[in-house]
Amino acid sequence: MRLPSISSLLCLAGLVALPVNAYDDPNIKSIPLRTHSLSPPYLDSDFQSRWFDFGGDTVIRADKYVRLTADRPSQQGWIASRVPLTATNWQIELEFEIHGSGNLHGDGFALWLTKERATQGPVFGSTDKFEGLGIFFDTYKNNRPGVSFPYVMAMMGDGKTTYDQAHDGKANELAGCSARGLRSAPVPTKARLTYFQDKSLSLELQYKSEDSWTECFNLSAEDSNIAIPSVAYLGLSAETGELSDNHDIVSLKAENLYSLNRGNNNKGKTTEDQSKNRGRSAPRPVKEKSSWSWFLLKTVLFFAVIVGGYFGWTVYRTKARSSRF
Fold first, then answer.
1. CA–CA dist 313, 307 (Å, integer)
2. Omega before residue 229 within 30° of 0, cis
3. Cα–Cα distance, 324 to 42 (Å, whole number)
4. What is the enclosing helix (H) or strand (E) of 141?
5. Distance CA 62, CA 60 (A)
6. Segment holding 248, helix H or strand E
7. CATH for 28-259 (3.10.300.10, 3.30.70.20, 3.40.50.970, 2.60.120.200)
8. pTM above 0.90?
9. Transmembrane segments in this chain: where (predicted)?
């Protein structure tokens, strides 16, 4: 009988999930966060989601999408993580589709990272006066001269401030960009939000051509008020009014980012700071890497003992049978 390799046993046991690059900087590695990711079929065998709740007019088609609203008037839908996102540094990549019939459409959808879980309400289908971060994909222009729509903007809520709906969030905008062509784009539409605590927050969009990202904004903590709660729930919501659209979520991928070198994360630093760092000795690897190596070694040794025991038992049993004859 051919025994499985140690690596196969580890994979089957689900104990090893090797980190992969999710960032341009080779010193930054990532670990997927299953608790905050969505992909087909979205639901388990009991037609429930282990890590997400959903409500309102949200409909899930297991082979295709999570539809927050259909192309019908006066709809609101939402989906939110059951557990908070506590990673210090993270990246969220969202694939979505906004489409519908007719020449007029609205209103849009939002991505949330807030202190409280998503609750149905008047701001793109979720509650107003939220505490945390809201990224709004606004497809209907109310009253904002000089701005092309669709418009994507970030708002940092303090739990008290009302969203300026009459002027498409003009009074609340932390950063934003016009994204003409985002709706009914000829390629998969995606958004990639990257956050380094106390350092930077950036948003990139893919809608012009596949594998081509357009920077929407890139904020540093020194210049902007980036106050995302350390414990925040991840959510998505959408709303239609008299005008409507299908707001579909195709996939959601969240990853925990970490640096291989202590204090060697130059993201968001000036060229002068980086030049100073070059003259210093290379920092020692963080404990996270050594802890991972020690865990992997212990796991390999554990399975080695099991395999060795199995071989010993097989030899003993063979000798015992031979002695009978």
1. 10
2. no
3. 57
4. none
5. 6
6. strand 246-259
7. 2.60.120.200
8. no
9. 292-316
